[in-house]
Design brief:
The complex is a heterodimer of chains A (about 250) and B (about 260). Chain A is built from eleven helices and no strands. With about 250 residues, chain A is mostly helical. Chain A has a single domain, classed as MetI-like (MetI-like fold, Orthogonal Bundle). In chain A, helix 6 crosses helix 7. Chain B is α/β, with parallel strands linked by helices. Chain B has two domains: about 150 residues, Rossmann fold; about 70 residues, no CATH class. In chain B, helix 2 crosses helix 3, helix 2 packs parallel to helix 4 and helix 6 packs across helix 7. The chains are: A mainly alpha (about 250), B alpha/beta (about 260). At the A-B interface, helix 8 and helix 9 of A face strand 6 and helix 2 of B. Bound molecules: adenosine-5'-triphosphate (ATP) and magnesium ion.
């Protein structure tokens, strides 16, 4: 109960903001074209939900994020740890990762569209490529930072080199991998919506663009808020999962 | 030079650290030492004289680049469970509980599950950590971590025990208990022990031979025999014991003073 109360207090500024929004728009302080009243947005949301548009487009978007991010996490973590463990691979891929990491990933949108068209594949590959980099970097740094004495401990307790990689290096890298994934999670939403706004026939981004062009701004806002809320929920859930997974860290 | 009863044979070993940044450090300079099978040897010397380095070389964690180290006649290769080590800074797996840490080596030995659990319980109990089986290292005090690390190493029953200040973080009372416990284990299943300590009293109490090392670069300054009757409960009050402690003390003090002067220069 006190937990719930703390949550309510923490997020009360949002309620205030919602009220201000409603008042500003209803009173004509802000043009209701630029900012439709929140209550209208809520009604538009219900209509979108009833018509099914929200779900079909939402499902498309979530599938793309799930596939792209899933691939990025698995392949990125494996590559990062192997690069830290195996110097030759570091030499080969290190410069590539360094060069691509600071690049604005949205620059890849036209490239993946050119290669793979307007459908799911181009979005999945875009998210995969963009989100893999923070995971690789986290895994690499985490594995490099593995305590020498822990590796020695495992070896003197009878672990083979391979077992040491799996039993010591990988767990040592996990906290940094988790940080990388958190960055990627946020990035995946950015990439998804941008790509869908520009080149897509389905998805949240497409729906936002479509409704905006048609002038149904209350519905457009409804989708924007939905995406924002989903991103927020994903981040919170992820944080809770990480805290539980790393309870040994205190 | 070496005969059959020597288990660890260290001949003319030098070790230089060459860090990626910073200057080279000559940590060990021409160290030779023969350790008999089932012998208990203590290693004393001022901080930074290379005691840990010597254990790491025997353990196979650092490569021997000059001189040779043989264990049972064979040059040491990599690390292995025949040489158990208790690290100065414990090196417990932070993501495993006390029980998980102790079980790790037993799993690698391939023991059946029931036997692993049984052994883990025995050794956790022996170091006085029953009730803390499910605690993570971050939830333990320094002394408790040290005891968990000792249990983890003893559990796999290595023929050679390399112990790097294993009781350094313990209070005087627990330290006394652990010393007696270690002697009891050693009598029950004699192992070859190399025991690093800063505590002269502890060294003389535990070890048949005490090796005093010189300030950096580490050399063997003196080897003192302490052929005492360790079953005697009055041992630490005996004349013979006190004389040896005094002798070792004066050797160690000389080196500590030299190390201090070296630092001041
Ligand atoms: N990884 C390293 N890189 C460079 N120099 C090192 C490294 N490890 C140890 N040294 C140096 O080698 C020397 C011996 O170190 P070592 O840890 O073996 O000493 P020690 O006798 O165990 O000291 P203490 O009693 O403080 O534990 C020290 O002077 C130290 O500065
Ligand atoms: Mg040391």
């Amino acid at each position: 109960m006190t937990h719930l109360k703390a949550l309510l207090i923490r997020y009360s500024p949002l309620v205030l903001l919602a009220a201000l929004w409603e008042i500003a728009s209803r009173s004509g302080l802000v043009s209701s074209l630029a900012l439709p009243p929140l209550s209208d947005v809520a009604i538009a949301w219900l209509d979108l939900a009833k018509s099914g548009d929200l779900w079909t487009n939402g499902l498309a978007s979530m599938t793309r994020i799930g596939a792209g991010l899933g691939l990025a996490i698995v392949i990125g973590a494996v590559l990062g740890v192997l690069m830290a463990w195996w110097r030759a691979l570091d030499r080969l891929l290190g410069p590539l990762v360094e060069m691509l990491y600071p690049m604005p990933k949205s620059a890849l949108i036209p490239v993946t569209a050119l290669w793979l068209g307007f459908g799911d594949a181009s979005k999945i590959v875009l998210i995969f490529l963009g989100c893999m980099l923070p995971v690789i970097l986290g895994a690499y740094n985490g594995a490099r930072g593995a305590d020498q004495a822990l590796i020695w401990s495992a070896r003197s307790l009878g672990a083979s080199r391979l077992a040491t990689l799996w039993n010591v290096v990988v767990p040592s890298a996990l906290p940094e991998i988790a940080n990388g994934i958190r960055t990627s999670l946020a990035l995946s939403f950015v990439l998804l919506v941008s790509a869908e706004l520009i080149v897509a026939r389905k998805g949240f981004g497409y729906l936002i663009g479509f409704l905006g062009e048609g002038g149904t701004y209350d519905a457009m806002f409804a989708v924007v808020l939905t995406v924002a809320l989903l991103g927020f929920i994903a981040d919170r859930l992820y944080n809770a999962l990480v805290r539980w997974g790393f309870r040994w860290q205190q | 030079m070496s005969t059959m009863s020597e288990l660890i044979s260290i001949d003319g070993v030098c070790h230089t650290y060459t860090p990626a940044h910073g200057r080279e450090v000559l940590a060990l300079d021409n160290v030779s030492l023969q350790v008999q099978r089932q012998e208990f040897v203590a290693l004393l010397g001022p901080s930074g004289c290379g005691k840990s380095t010597l254990l790491y070389l025997i353990g196979g964690f650092l490569p021997v680049t000059q001189g040779s180290i043989r264990v049972d006649g064979k040059p040491v290769g990599g690390p292995g469970p025949d040489r158990g080590i208790v690290f100065q800074h414990f090196a417990l797996f932070p993501w495993k509980t006390v029980r998980g840490n102790v079980l790790y080596g037993l799993e690698k030995m391939g023991l059946p599950r029931a036997e692993r659990e049984e052994r883990a319980r025995t050794f956790i109990d022996m170091v006085g950590l029953s009730g803390f089986e499910e605690s993570y290292p971050s939830q333990l005090s320094g002394g408790m971590k040290q005891r968990a690390a000792i249990a983890r190493t003893l559990a796999i029953d290595p023929g050679i025990l390399l112990m790097d200040e294993p009781f350094g973080a313990l209070d005087a009372q627990t330290r006394g208990l652990m010393q007696a416990e270690l002697l009891r284990i050693w009598r029950g299943s004699p192992k070859t022990v190399m025991f690093v300590t800063h505590d002269v009293h502890e060294a003389v109490y535990l070890a048949r031979r005490i090796v005093v090392m010189s300030a950096r670069p580490g050399r063997v300054k003196a080897v003192i025999e302490a052929d005492l009757d360790r079953a005697d409960p009055q041992l630490t009050k005996s004349r013979a014991f006190i004389d040896i402690v005094d002798e070792v003390w004066s050797l160690v003090r000389e080196e500590a003073v030299r190390a201090e002067r070296y630092r001041a220069e």
